[in-house]
Amino acid sequence: MKREITFYSRFESDILSGKKTITIRDSSESHFEKGELLSVSRNEDGQYFCTIEVDSVTPVLMNELTEVHAAQENMTLGELKQVISEIYPRLNELYVISFHMR
Ligand SMILES: CC(=O)Nc1ccn([C@H]2C[C@H](O)[C@@H](CO)O2)c(=O)n1
């Protein structure tokens, strides 16, 4: 059975257009596997909006995030760090989930 991942609705259009190709999560969402298909829905209302395939899951520390990660999120590095620190306050150990649309 397909596992699920949610995204805040403000990221939906970036995912559907292919501008956002990674998401950075905490350890609770680090157990996805390469090749796994995930059903993607909106965090706010649970509405399904696409399926993605996981390309990789890679540990990263907050201070290791670069402009490359930010570009893959379709953000500046400052915006990315701000978003992550709001979602995961004071968390240093993160995971980059790389994906593409199916
Ligand atoms: C439940 C939960 O954690 N939901 C999340 C977490 C992260 N995101 C987005 C925000 C940024 O674009 C990246 C990096 O964290 O992933 C999200 O949409 N929903």
From TrEMBL:
GO MF: hydrolase activity, acting on carbon-nitrogen (but not peptide) bonds, in linear amidines
Annotated GO CC locations: cytosol
SUPFAM superfamilies: PUA domain-like (SSF88697)
Active site: 20, 23, 73
Class of enzymatic activity (EC top level): hydrolase
Keyword Hydrolase recorded: yes
Catalysis: reaction(s): N(4)-acetylcytidine + H2O = cytidine + acetate + H(+); N(4)-acetyl-2'-deoxycytidine + H2O = 2'-deoxycytidine + acetate + H(+); N(4)-acetylcytosine + H2O = cytosine + acetate + H(+)
Pfam annotation, one family: ASCH
UniProt key word Membrane: no
EC number per UniProt: 3.5.1.135
InterPro entries: AC4CH, ASCH_domain, PUA-like_sf
Domain spans labelled ASCH: 5-102
Keyword field: Hydrolase
Family per similarity comment: Belongs to the N(4)-acetylcytidine amidohydrolase family.
Function description: Catalyzes the hydrolysis of N(4)-acetylcytidine (ac4C).
Name this protein carries in UniProt: N(4)-acetylcytidine amidohydrolase
Organism: Hafnia paralvei
